[in-house]
């Protein structure tokens, strides 16, 4: 009896030891797995908090962002736009000219120091915005975007007319981006008009445009704003109004001369509206005649547009079509004197359109309308940030970018290692249990 009891105790002990070992292993592995899962959940939650209003999904991130020309009007607006739209900025690099380098500025991302530009430094970012002139972009843009480099969004005219470089207004032709890492931002005048005209073109087939612009001083950047304000002070003090940025004094004046004159009598600014509208709308048959005029407003461009279509269209049909368009607000109430104005459009993301009426010249196929939009936003910073959102989101979805996706890849590898360890330990425990049972039977 004693011998039998002893045998049973040995057998139970032989079986329990590996079972306890297996239980301990399982608890340990489960703990590791939970920690990995918790880290992934935390990281996922932090990225979801970066959600933007972009219509096609949640943004991954964070991304390192560089702005070249950060001390200018568009550069400053880019910083504001990134913050306002909750773009997931990791590190923010602000590049300026040697004159401004070393200065510290206070931004929504804290105090930042302007840095001297170099291609090598810019290539460390995930997204690079070029708020610079065409010569700078031609010299550096392609080098920055070269193999394994960042996405480069250029606000200058350097590459707008290059057939290999997409010219993008995201609400209209984001599909044209493809795999390009260098993307052109359109001219501010074109972008403002395009937002109102695109919904009409989709429904009624745009054929001809006659446009007269009323372009604010800030279209010439911060120097344009400074010259207008200084000129007003000079006039108020009874002094001679001087000019450097504009070809003539701007206060209490209008200048039918923006950019240089071409051989056909149009200015380059006016030609841009033609070439860019055709490229963005992907329709070279659209005919455009533009007269570009600088006016003494501080911010927001206005445009009087006569549009001719391939079919009849009434003002009411046009209003309904534009009201459905993204980034467009119909402001057209004659009874209450509501219509687009620079003062109201300044600082607003959407483009205002109003004064919609049947053309007295082109009849049922023609419309006259008035458009107003903040050219520093829709015509520059906002459009550029929208492009970045589209590119980074779609790249993340197609597994082409590194930050968030690389992190998730590491988590998946960790989980793979954990579960491989689980299987190996279970196999070892099984062998121990088998041997214990065999030993028990021998007893």
Provide a concise account of the structure shown.
The chain contains twelve helices and 14 strands. By secondary structure, the chain is α/β, with parallel strands linked by helices.
What do these coordinates show?
- This protein is of the alpha/beta class.
- Helices cover 45% and strands 19% of the residues.
- It has 12 helices and 14 strands.
- The strands form 3 sheets. A 6-stranded parallel sheet has the order 5-2-1-6-7-8, sandwiched between helices. The protein has a 6-stranded mixed sheet with strand order 10-9-11-14-13-12.
- β7, α5 and β8 (182-184) form a beta-alpha-beta unit.
- The longest helix has 47 residues, at 2-48.
- It is globular, with a radius of gyration of 31 Å.
């Amino acid at each position: 009896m004693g011998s039998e009891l002893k045998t049973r105790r040995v057998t139970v002990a032989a079986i329990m030891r590996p079972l306890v070992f297996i239980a301990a292993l399982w608890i340990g592995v489960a703990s590791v797995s939970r920690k990995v899962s918790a880290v992934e959940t935390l990281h996922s939650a932090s990225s979801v908090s970066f959600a933007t209003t972009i219509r096609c999904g949640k943004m991954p991130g964070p991304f390192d962002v560089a702005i070249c020309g950060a001390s200018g009007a568009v550069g400053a607006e880019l910083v504001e736009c990134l913050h306002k739209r909750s773009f997931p900025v990791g590190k923010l690099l602000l590049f300026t000219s040697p004159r401004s380098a070393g200065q510290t500025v206070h931004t929504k991302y804290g105090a930042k120091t302007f840095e001297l530009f170099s291609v090598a430094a810019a290539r460390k970012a995930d997204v690079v915005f070029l708020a610079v002139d065409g010569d700078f972009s031609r010299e550096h843009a392609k080098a920055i975007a070269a193999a394994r480099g960042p996405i480069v969004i250029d606000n200058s005219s350097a590459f707008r007319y290059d057939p290999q470089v997409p010219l993008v207004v995201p609400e209209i032709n984001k599909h044209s981006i493809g795999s390009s890492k260098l993307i052109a931002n359109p001219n501010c005048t074109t972008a403002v008009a395009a937002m109102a005209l695109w919904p009409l073109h989709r429904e009624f087939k745009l054929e001809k445009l006659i446009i007269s612009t009323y372009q604010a001083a800030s279209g010439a950047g911060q120097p344009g704003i400074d010259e207008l304000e200084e000129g007003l002070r000079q006039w108020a003090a009874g002094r001679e109004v001087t000019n450097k940025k504009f070809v003539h004094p701007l206060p209490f004046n209008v200048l039918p001369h923006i950019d240089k004159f071409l051989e056909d009598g149009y200015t380059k600014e006016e030609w841009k509206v033609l070439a860019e509208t055709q490229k963005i709308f992907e329709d070279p048959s659209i005919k455009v005649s533009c007269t570009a005029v600088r006016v003494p407003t501080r911010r927001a461009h206005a445009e009087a547009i006569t549009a001719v279509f391939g079919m009849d269209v009434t003002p009411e049909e046009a209003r309904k079509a534009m009201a459905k368009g993204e980034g467009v607000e119909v402001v057209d109430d004659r009874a209450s004197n509501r219509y687009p104005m620079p003062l109201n459009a300044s600082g607003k993301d959407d483009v205002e359109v109003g004064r919609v009426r049947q053309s007295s010249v082109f009849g049922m196929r023609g419309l006259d309308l008035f458009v107003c939009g903040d050219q520093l936003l829709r015509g520059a910073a906002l459009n550029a940030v929208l492009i970045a959102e589209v590119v980074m989101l779609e790249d993340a979805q197609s597994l082409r970018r590194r930050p968030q996706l690389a992190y998730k890849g590491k988590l998946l590898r960790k989980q793979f290692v954990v579960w491989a360890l689980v299987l190996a330990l279970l196999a070892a425990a099984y062998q121990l249990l088998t041997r214990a049972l065999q030993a028990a039977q021998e007893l």
